[in-house]
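Continuing the batch. This is chain 6 of the set; chains 1 through 5 are on the previous pages. Same settings as before, nothing changed between runs. Recording input and output for traceability.
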Amino acid sequence: SQTDAGVVYVYTKNSNPLATPLFTLTQTILNPFPQDNDSFGFSAVLENGVLIIGAYGKDSFSGVAYLYELVENVWTYVQTVDNPTPANSDWFGRSLTLNADFVAVSAPQDDTAATDAGSVYLYKKTCVGNGSSIKEWVAINGGGGSGGGSIVTSCTKQTLYYYGGF
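Output for chain 6:
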C-alpha cells in the first residue's frame, strides 16, 4: 500500500431532504496508478457525466489528472491527462474547474513562463461530426509547451487535446 496515494469517495444526495442519512456513499474511486505521495483526490470536479480528479503529487509532483465518465451510474476511468510540460514540482492538477464548455487545470509551480510562475491549461469543448458523436476538447490558448496528448471517451465520446498553456 502506498502512502498518501489518495482515494475519492462519491456520495449521492437523497431526494428526500428529511431522509437520514441525507448523503449515501455510492462509490469509492481508488487511484488507478497509485504511487507514494500522489495526492489523488486533492482536487476533483464533476459536471454533466464528466469527473476530473487531480493527483498533483504524481511523478515527483509533476502532476496528472484523471478523466472519468459516468457509465450506467458508475464513475469509470477513461484516461490520464498528463502534464503537457512536465517537470518536478509543477503541481499540475492541484486545482481544477469544469463546466459544460471548458476545463481548466492549474499547475501553480509550472516553470514555462518563469521559475514557479505557474500555468493554467485551459481547454474548450466543441462537438464535431454528425449527431455530435464526438466531443473535442481543444486548448484555446497558444502559449508555450510542445503540444500533444489526447483523451478519448465515449459521447458521449470526448477528446481532450492540449496545445499550450498560459
